[in-house]
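Notes, Module 5: Reading structure tokens.

Key idea: the token line is not a picture. It is a compressed description, and you learn to read it the same way you learned to read a sequence, by spotting repeated patterns. We will look at two proteins. The first is printed below with its tokens.
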Amino acid sequence: MKKTNLMLERPSFKLSLIALGISSFISNGVQAEDDLNLETVRVIGQAVQIDKALTEQRNSNSIESVVHADGIGQLPDDNAAEALQRLPGVSVANDQGEGRFVTVRGLAPELNAVTINGTNVPSPESDTRAVALDVLPSELVQSLSVVKTLTPDMDANSLGGTINVRSLSAFDHDGLFYTLSTEGSFDDNTDQISPKGSGAVSNIFSIGDGVDNFGVAAALSWQKRDFGSDNVETGGAWDFDGSQPRLEELEQRDYEISRERLGLGVNFDYKADVNTSYYLRTLFSRFTDTETRNAAGIEFADPLLPNESGDDAEGFRELKDREETQEIQSYVFGGEKTIGLWKIDGQIGYSRASEDTPGHLAGAKFVGDFDNVSYSGTSKPRLNAGSDYYDPASFELDEVEWEEQKTTDTEKNIKIDLARDFDIQGYASQLKFGGKLSRREKDNEVDAWAFEDFGTNDTSLAAYSAGNVDYSLNRYGQGISSSALERLIGRLDKAGNVDAEESQINDFVMNEDINAAYVMNTLDLDDWTIIAGLRYEGTEFKAKGTGIRDGNFEAISSKNSYHNWLPGLHLRYYLDDKTQVRAAWTNSVVRPTFEALAPGFAIDGDEASFGNPDLDPMTSKNLDLGIEHYMGRAGAVSAYVFYKDISDFVYNTDLGGTGMFTDFDQAETFDNGDTAKVYGLELAYTQKLSWLPAPWNGLLLGANATFSQSDAEIEGLGQKRDIDLPGQSNQVANLMVGWENDKLSMRLSANYKSSYLSEVAGIDDKEHDQYVDSQLFLDFSTSYFVTKNAQITLEAKNLTDEEYYVYTGSSAYNAQYEEYGPSIKLGFTLTNF
């Protein structure tokens, strides 16, 4: 069978015939509607979001999951990270109760890539490649997608998935569109109310000889949120040598946090003629995080059992107070032109991410000696101490650390794609090839001072106290005044107290140049779509930094290069008009984190810590197989199995006692593991039950779950042991129950992820591996249209008051416990479209 009208019933890369048919259908449909004088029905809400997302997913050449803004330009959550966690196989790593970093199919955030409008996004933080997506307000985003199988024309730098962010375009709406929103949120933990305001506007203009050929879209969002959390942690300081684990130290922390977000995007689209178009996409995001952390802790002279009293313990009070500002800028200029059977796409991208932390109290520590202290409980330990522990006069200032830091990460790239349509024996085919040049530079600069001699100044905590700390997990006592400590530093000799080691070994400049080229062919063969191709990526890496060896500084420079040939094959088979089977064999390459590649080192006697610029990248062979069935309005069910064979995965380790570190008690660094395997099953279902009688016809159901398993092996000290791949959750699941009509919309959603390995201890110290415990979040949101253009929204998050818990070896033994409390938001939106 050759090409038939089936082309009109299923997605294909050959779009010209489809576009012609749709255009004719729309024209005829509009005329018929005018003739019958029918009322136009607005299409907004949850079902519209789901429907648009499923359409993109269905038409994609890759296995892809999508979340889409609705007709009034709103994603279903406050930031990009939290919107993505509703997708199959996707979960979010939280920071202070807010969704930030995205995991895909249980794999850690640094194993995934993020692009904005087609260009890679660098990370503002010094140690990671992962991009914290909470810096992107939802108002700036038109759609988000997670591509889980890469075609050869895509960057191959993701293992779990590539997260694509597409910002608002004027051509997403007909004519003038605008929306204005205001919101207030209440944080239960701090009793603080926080404001938010946002807006978006777009319009289409006629310039030159064209008609509706120039579009301008802009979006602005601002939010300031005041909140906090209460924490108790041991850092994993458990002694497992005896018959019962004993605790060496614990710490109570109180966080007061203020986060301010500002996002701005301005986009331009120009259709020069039917064959030529250009675009400019710009995005600016600023995220300012102000954090004051009071800590009260104890170090026992000898490790203690629960409720066992100990003498001669050192108590401490600490303060950290800093403000850091992260910025992300992205500018993408591109265009496409059709010349006969050829199509040419070109794009120039520039992205810059930075994190600026001006001079701040990196740590101020007061100490004192105490007797008859103990603790109760092991998962959420409570400190038990006498009244002297809560007397500020019992503590004396031991050290003050002052620090400032600036990190920048810049990426410049240019790419070009050429495609030509042709036919093979009457079957539609397309040859596509192209290349990309990417230049990335990441630099980090730290300046630090350490003060220990305070002269004749009063060093009692009583002189620097700031009133009682609002701490819910236990008795705490008084906090520390940052302003009083800053006045003290102002009286000290700053130039004579430079911390030369801290200031130099953390400074680095890293350059990563990637040259890529690819060729691929797409063929429609009866009920099959076949994509086969090959991608090449060559990487040149350079790093410069400083190390310290027994008090002497050494300049370090390192180079590394590698070349990866990455074949890929994608198959899609149409069982019928609503059902398709997909299969993919792909290859990817993920480069180590910047923390792992850092050139700096510190060697002091028989102890060492250092990065490893000579690490190999992680490579993976990936197999995916699944089926998708689409049914009615906002309806689809899918099932996928996946398998990843990973080589050279990176992990932290201790090389002390081995090789060139034979005489070292400790040599902490990063190394390449041999192989790891990840395999799993991904299930998804969504549907609007529109066939039910009213009011049940407004019901929407959605559920997805990913079940995965990883196996990895590490070695050192002449030993080997099996571990899970760090950051990989075995189960990730979402459940959504919604209901809507033309005025009211409600949604109750649950998000679950199982525990995962977060930090690997020594090769011979499995008991001190650290795990993040499972989490279940429950959120509720509702919106009501007061008029056709005015909407009220209410959202309640973390209704289950879910905590963040990290344990050591066994879930009974605390490494970190943190509570945030629920939050409630009330908003108002005015829209014209």
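Here is the second protein, with the sequence above and the tokens below, as before.
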Amino acid sequence: MNDLSRSRSASRPEGRRLPSYFDLIEDELRRRSGGGGGAPKKPLPTKRAVPSAKRPGAGTAFSRAAGNNAVVVKVLSYGAGASSARNVLAYQSKEEKALDQDGREVTDLNAAMRSWEREFSNRKGSQDILRLTYELEKADGEDIKRALGSLAEDGFRQASDTDRTYAFSVSEGLKGGTRLHFALVIAHEKNDRSDRSSANRIPAEIDDVRAIDERLDRALRGAGITPVSRYPAEFSSGPKGLTATLHAMQRAGAEVTLSTKTHLRDRPGKSGRYERGGERRDVTTKDHKELTAEGKVIGALMQTRQPRDFMHLLLSGPANVDRDRFILAGRDFLKEQFAGHRYAYAVHNRNDLEKHPHLHVIVALRNASGKMLNPNIRDFTEWRVRFADNARERGIPIDRQKRIERAGPPPVKRWEWEMFRRMGATAPANVVDKVRAKLRDTPTAPKREEAKKRLEQSRRSVGRVILMLEGIAKDRSAPSTARELSHDLSIGLRREYGRLETAVREGRDPTREKGEDHMLRSTPISAAQAKAAKETLANTALTVAAKIANPSDRLIFEQATKIIGKVVGLQLDSRVGKNRDRTESGSDKRSSDSLETKSAAGRDHIAEQSVVNRSSNNRSLDASRIARSNAEYDAPEADRSNRERPKPQQRDRDIPKSIKLRPPQEKDKDRTR
């Protein structure tokens, strides 16, 4: 096989270059539109089948290679209650009036939420904070602090319950006495955000409240403080409930003391990490904002269960999209996907052409029949597919794709954008790198285990494809056209993949790397040769795929071979077309079924016609047999038809019974088939 580096560079006829993704896309569009050049003039049919979210296939890669943007459909938040829904709807309507599911403008937010509230559930969140209020005889704040500190060491509910967060404030009580506000987190406080256990939750039952009250009463009396009376117990839910409780305890200028083992650990160059453990830390303050900040730190590790009445959904598109068509696509998607649910949507950045247009949508999770919508990752994938389909029907080049399926820049949080905008190059190094990677759209190495696993699977699949092509190229029983094309493709793929890996390893953006021209043979071939080559590659790919035990690895390998199959099909079809043109123009008087392609040692027509090849390693015998075959096909058609083909038995007599193995001669080193 000729080395690509020694290819015949004196003349490079048109059509010999390896087809690019853009060639494949145009070919696919021509195929869909029924022929003709360029993109189809009429849009694709509106009737479509439900797309499969399990197999993104090569179509996604083609679409992304053409510059199509990945569709963005994500849930920003969930909420409960009419008040929260009104706040979300007010934010959505800051630029334009929101439209509801019937296409009517939402002019009165309060009236709209009253109609929504009838379909909201009455379920309340979990009871996470217990608040007890006492009337004491005149007492000193320091004595109360010491008594509560000893109670924290002994345990609030039982002897081992010593790690809970608590807060208290002391103010003036009735008849010259002292009023004590005491708040205790009875929800499970996680060790970190990955903790999914709930072993330390105290049920909000009357027996548990009574047990906590008795231990607190005993601790106060042990410090010489006499409780006179206690108000009814109160409960609050979630981080917001904790913050509201702290603010209520701070009224009338009282100081609030917060004692917790939860803290935010600073990490140089990285965002902070929420952790629980170690020594207790006490914070005493009157500042409203400081209490809010501390409440957020504690609430970050509080395990809570909040009701869900609605979700805040985002549909985003590229900055250069046709805004009107994008909004219509979003409207059609919402009408199709959330039929029977109340929803309202508003457009942001409709007129700002430098920013991405997007739709903010609020969707009631309970429909008119009482059925709840509980979306998960499979639903999000399906929504992306359907929204992308609606957009493509309106001529918008948007594609469905997960972040894990593409080498994209890391996500940048809002505070990182603000820090980079204000501090510039003096910002932490990790923030600068993330923002620059986002601005330049530079891919980075994956850090999540799932993404690393997917990357390794892709590497293995590329390696399998290259080994498969190299195996076909070395298989002397395979058709010569398949051997040549496999050899050229394997060299091109190995060089290109190695070049991109080097760019990533050295920190360069692989999308900005200048590619190389990997040449393929373009000599004319017959339709029979093209068919034999396609069948050889297809059958080999099926055989290799059947031997891959891991279903994920097999799926990625099949996707890769689909792209290779598209390249092979385009290349072989172009060579068949050249042969047809030569035959029609009369420049070649041989039939279209003749074998045109020649390698360095000549074409073996007998092997191409699937005749059993019984040749030996004796190159002189091979050369004589091939010469006879070529002479027969080079003869005029009349002579060829009158001449009888030698029988296989006559050829067998020329083959020696014994074979002597010998090293290749000096003159045979560069002669390959």
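Summary for the second protein:
- Residues 409-442 form one domain.
- The longest strand covers residues 270-285.
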